[in-house]
Amino acid sequence: MTPIQISHYTAVSALGYGLEAHRQALMTEQGALASCNYKNAKVNTFIGRVPQLEAQAWPNLWKDYFSRNNLLALTALHQDDFLTAISNAKDRYGAKRVGLLLGTTTSGFSEAERAYRQRDKQGNLPNDFDYRKTAHPYATGEFLRNYLALQGPAMTIATACSSSAKAFICAQRWLQLNLCDAVLIAGIDSLCLNILYGFHSLGILSTEKCCPFAQNRSGLSLGEAAALVLVERANTGKIGLLGFGESTDGYHMSAPHPEGKGAILAMQAALNSAKLAPSQIDYINFHGTASLQNDRIEDQAVYQLFKNEVPASSTKGWMGHTLGAAGALEVIIACLAIEQKMLWATLNTIEIDQSLRSYILLKNTAAVVKKALVNSFGFGGNNCSLIIGEISDE
């Protein structure tokens, strides 16, 4: 495949606002999971909630678009000069040549929850509830496109937890097909009661901080995040997307194939598209949700391709599983691994499950990282693997 350049990126998550907050948390192995305090949720679990998000200002001009998801998006736009990066892209190419791809799962569903709780005696929703601008799956995409005055192609991808990872693949295709010259990739998902109770009903929420691949793991910790990435056509020497692979095994609505067939297909396709051997990958960012079944099957798939020779970790112990935002957020984490020359730990995990065989890191480890594989696997068998690294002229 033709690589694409990652020109600018930023993130807001439970770790804080902007790249420096994420860099510091990662380098010092300081996670941000805390006992669930989201609204009136009566769920015994830990979550990665963005600190002080509710205190962020919302412009009155855009009051019809207010939702937790859109507030996450706006807050991220104001980090690390990201607005300037978008403005510069528009100046270079024109607004019609800058596309937008949103990866999300929950979108602004918390606003729909509020509206249903505030129905009148006849069951009518409150007059101030605008489904299209707040709770629709494309609501955040519409807000971003209008707020930034973008006029290029725009689309929302909702393939569960692989959503924003899949957005990178679509962006590469748009650029290769000359549909646009730059693409804003946004992975944004916010906490809501529907998600908390939904995962609770599946019996896969941990009552402690999630500990991926641990002997005593008991489930995942949910989080929320906005991860923004601007991509363009490749320049040699820059960090970018070198390869991708995707598959859909469709084995079960909420469980992966027991032999990890879909995950193996996606990782092998990523290696093939980047023309790399498994030994040329320096670091693997697991999907690693800390559920009993998912971790075991992902380990099995990774071991089949990489044996126990490539160091790997799950970073969800830092900020939780951010669902549709996870792919883009973990691409940024991979970029920080390359930048900082550091392999990230599997936070909260003390003893690795003895049945697992891949090379799982428990502590941060200094190392030169030239190429990183990022896995994102979603419900229904929506599997995606991305390879991030320095673009060469070969």
Short key terms for the protein model shown above:
Peroxisomal Thiolase, Chain A, domain 1; three-stranded mixed beta sheet; 12 helices; 16 strands; single chain; 394 residues; alpha/beta; eleven-stranded mixed beta sheet
Number of helices in the DSSP assignment: 12
Rg computed from alpha carbons, rounded to a whole number of angstroms: 20 Å
Which residues form runs of ≥5 with pLDDT under 50?
none
Distance from first to last alpha carbon: 12 Å
Strand tally is: 16
Estimate percent helicity.
25-40%
Category by helix and strand content: alpha/beta
CATH architecture: 3-Layer(aba) Sandwich
Assign the CATH class.
Answer: Alpha Beta
Strand-helix topology:
Blueprint: E1 4-13, E2 16-17, H1 19-27, E3 34-35, E4 46-48, H2 68-77, H3 82-93, E5 98-103, H4 109-117, H5 131-134, H6 139-147, E6 154-157, H7 163-176, E7 182-189, H8 193-201, E8 222-223, E9 225-233, E10 239-248, H9 261-274, E11 283-285, H10 292-306, E12 312-313, H11 316-319, H12 326-340, E13 342-343, E14 365-366, E15 371-378, E16 382-390
Parallel strand pairs: 4-8, 5-6, 5-7, 11-12, 11-15
Antiparallel strand pairs: 1-2, 1-9, 1-10, 3-4, 7-9, 10-16, 13-14, 15-16
Helix pairs in contact: 2-6, 7-12, 9-10
